[in-house]
Amino acid sequence: MVVTGRWWAGRRRRPDHVIDLELAEIIAAIGDGELVPHYQPLVSFQSGRLLGVEALARWDRPGAGRLSPGAFVPCLEEGRRMTDLTSWMIDRACADLDRWRRLFRLPVGFRVAVNVSATELVDRRLLRLVGEALQRYRLAADGLCLELTETAAVEDLATAAEVVRELRALGTRFALDDFGTGSARRDVLDQLPFDMVKIDRSYAASLASADSLAFISEVVALAEERRLEVVAEGIETPEQFAALRSLGCRQGQGFGLGRPAPADVVLAPWMPAPAGI
Ligand code: C2E
Ligand code: CA
Ligand code: CA
């Protein structure tokens, strides 16, 4: 299906940052190699070391500069073509992981996270895509983590749970993204087998609020009970880092720890210098 109509048609208000794009153009751009993954470091609070990276899509659109996912992901969602992006991102993430492991001595347990949309969880194509990409680059499945966003769209929890269980049986890890916002449903956390929960960045930005502190403590306690890893997102300042660490978070991401960057530069600052330099 190629949807050529303007994707915001029928919406009450077109967000300012959204550029006039058509679905067919985005899909062509994926095929033409105009998209590029950037990677943001995931850091251990205890050791300050790199634990992995998250892949974030960017579109270098000729004549328009670099576009963030907010400018094209909603269009793919609406046109039900998210898998075009996901399959490309999984392939690129696995290719980059393969290249990094040849170039660097990666930390034990290093993983690359790729965002997947909830609508894809009821689609068994995701299993095939992951299996094929791991095989193509001869990677172990525990090097890959899938981050589930917009869980409001998980309509069929039973099928989603089956797909997640099969992915985890391969060894792939599974994270619930943006927890604490309207886009991450609590019942989804209760019913799907996650390895990790990521506390939305709005909480790091509102640490002066008693409600935020209470929520973060609650998530940390719940995660301990269920043996889930907790990641605090959106860490920009040393004060946020210290506060989130004292609340029991052990891993974090944010501009203050490392900004998203292209594959060829993101890891170098975290890696020991090669012998002889
Ligand atoms: P996300 O998965 O929650 O990714 C984190 C977003 O927060 C990224 O925005 C990142 O640049 C931004 N960020 C990270 N640290 C900080 C910080 O300290 N402060 C602030 N203010 N922002 C920070 P980005 O790259 O624009 O991505 C936005 C969202 O688009 C992502 O949110 C994710 O939900 C979605 N997305 C990105 N790439 C993909 C993709 O390949 N597939 C899918 N399905 N969604 C994607
Ligand atoms: Ca994410
Ligand atoms: Ca997030």
Structure description:
By secondary structure, the protein is of the alpha/beta class. The chain has a domain of 153 residues: EAL domain (TIM Barrel), CATH 3.20.20. Helix content is 37%, strand content 21%. The chain has an eight-stranded mixed β-barrel with strand order 1-2-4-5-6-7-8-9, surrounded by four helices. β6, α6 and β7 form a beta-alpha-beta unit. The N terminus is likely disordered. The structure holds ligand C2E and calcium ion (CA) (2 copies). Ligand C2E binds next to β2, α3, β4, β5 and β6. One calcium ion (CA) binds next to loops.
Strand content: 15-25%
- Let me know the CATH homologous superfamily of one domain: EAL domain
- Judged by helices, strands and strand pairing, the structural class is alpha/beta
Instruction: Please write the CATH class name of one domain.
Output: Alpha Beta
Q: Report the radius of gyration as a whole number of Å.
A: 19 Å
CATH topology name of one domain:
TIM Barrel
Bound ions, cofactors and other small molecules, one mention each: ligand C2E, calcium ion
The mean pLDDT is 89
Task: Count up the helices.
Answer: 10
Query: Main sheet?
Result: 8 strands, mixed, barrel
CATH architecture of one domain: Alpha-Beta Barrel
Overall geometric form: globular
Question: In which range does the helix fraction lie?
Answer: 25-40%
Strand order in the sheet with the most strands: 1-2-4-5-6-7-8-9
**Low-confidence regions:** 1-12
E-strand count: 10
Give the terminus-to-terminus CA distance. Answer: 54 Å
